[in-house]
Structures are given as structure tokens and as C-alpha cells.
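Journal club prep — side note

Before the paper discussion, L.F. wants everyone to see what a predicted structure for a comparable chain looks like in C-alpha cell form. Sequence:
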Amino acid sequence: MIGIEIFSGVGGMSLGATMAGIEIAMAIEIDKDAAATFKLNHPNTNVLVSDIKDIETIEVPVTVNQKKILMGGPPCQGFSKSNVRGRTINNQKNWLFKEYLRITALWKPDWFVLENVQGLVETEKGLFLKEILKGFDDLGYTVNYKVLNAKNYGVPQSRERLFIVGSLHNEKFEFPEPLFTDKFITVEDAFKDLPHLVNGNKDTELNYNDNNPSDFALSLRSNLGTVTNNAVSRNSETVMKRYEHICEGGNWRNIPIEMMGSYKDVTRCHTGIYHRLHGKKPSVVIGNYRKNMLVHPWQNRGLSVREAARLQSFPDNFKFVGTINSQQQQVGNAVPPLLAKAVFTKIINSNI
């Protein structure tokens, strides 16, 4: 099976698809840093740095009997539950799914996988979801959709995502059953073998901390004995003092109110602000973790790029490039590879 990823970002979906046995021939991404990260980690893939609206032809050689699969996640910030103002029909980015439909009609893949946030199901009373389903139905696809939680598929993060899967040949698709239901991979499983870091760390390549790594950590570790992308944003002394008051699983409410003077109305802070991850549980959603100021479970600092990547289930040999701010956004935007792998493995198995 041969695939194309559009709106690819760094290629979390492509990595999961590759793990399942799919060849990724092409990726299309408008952000130069994300595209550079994709190319670095998928050297055999043709990566186009382009606005999807400018793509008029798809030139991918396909062998006899080789099935085609299209994958990708149109920008989802407008559908996020935390983006109240953007969850409307007036947000033009919310209509980029039409480009996904256009590329589907252009390439006519045997299968497609569209990923987005769970909020798409509810935005504008389901208007966008209905439009998407109707669009694929008009193109002749048999479609099924479901919200999956990454923690059920071996990812140390509670991250709900909508997957829409369609077949051009009326093949029925059933989503993968959860692999984890009671005991989940935790933040501690993901972090405890990673190097001890300080606020504002700039050392990109460091030795592992051989602190009895978990099976999950061992499955992600590189065989070089070192780990990269250990950069941490530098927080001010004021912010660092706030961190000291937050317990595992706590948030800004643990901080004395007199220390939150820089906030105009502290009572309106989102519960995710200043959230210290709990070592014994899966992480909360890793989105823009620098903006939300997610806190390391045991150290008084923000997360490193590598720690966030571990929470997304990226292997340690997957390297991110660009500024630290860009790398942080790249990680937060990505589809967890292990979650994607579960979906693509199910598609592969349905074609055997």
C-alpha cells in the first residue's frame, strides 16, 4: 500500500503508517520547519513545501495491484474546545477540509484517513462533520468515524481525536479495539530515563539517565546512547517561584493568589494553565505546552521538546528542527504515531 499525507506537519501519521507497513511516497506541508523535520525523518518521501490550495496534480507512481491511501489532518485549532471564538462557520480555516475532499477526488485513493480534534463533532451542532461525511459520500466512499483516545493505544497521554476512515470499494472498516483499558502508560514511564534538565537548558544532545527505564522507554530509545532535542524554554524567576507551589496533578489554583499579580483576572485562568503533570498517570493533552506552561512532574521547569515528544510516542531517533518555539509547536500539533499505527494496522489487516 502506498500513501500520501497532506497537512502533514512533521509526519506523525506517516510514521504510524510506516510502522504498519505503508510506503509514504509524498507529503504536503505549508510550514517550512515542519516540512524540514518531516524530510529529515522520512528521507525517501517527496516532501512538498506548499499551500495545499496550489496543488493541482498528484504524481505518484503506483504499481499494479498496489492500493493507494490518503491521510492527513486539516488544521484543527478552530474546532478545539478551548478556542471558543474560532468554533464558527466564519473561521475560514474550519473549511480547509474541502481541500482534503478536493485532493481525494483528484487522486482517488482506495482508502483515506482524516484526523481531527474531537471538537469537530460538536462545532456548529455537527455542521462540519455532516459536510465532511456528505462530501466523501458524494465521492463514492463508504465511511466510518470514531473518537479514539491515545492512552488506549499505548500513548502516555489522554488525547481524544476523531478519525474518519473511508473505502472506495465498499469495504467495511471497524476501528481497533483498545489495547489498554485499566492500566495505562504513565508520564513516569515516559520520563524517568531522560536526562535531568534545568530551566532554559540549551544542550541538545545528552546521555540517558540509566534509571531503570520502563519497557515503553526502552521501545523508544535510540541505539546511540544519547538523546536529542532536550531544549527547555527559559522561564522568569517569578514563574519559577510559582512552580514551587504546584503539586503533581495540580495547576494555577495551587499558587498563592498574591503571586499571580500579572494576570488581570486570575479566576478566568484555564485549568490547564500551570498544570504539573502527574507521574503516575497519562499526561493531559500536549498541545501548545509552552503557552499553557505545563510543568515537569518532579522538576520545577517546563517540558523539554524530547519529553513532549515521548508523551506523543515519537521514538528518540525522530529529530525536530527549527527554533525551540517551532519545535514545541511541531510536537504539539502532531498525531501520536502509536495511535496512528493502530488505525493503519487495522486497514492493512482488512486488505489481507
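L.F.'s comment for the group: The chain has a mean pLDDT of 91. Keep this in mind when we get to the figures.
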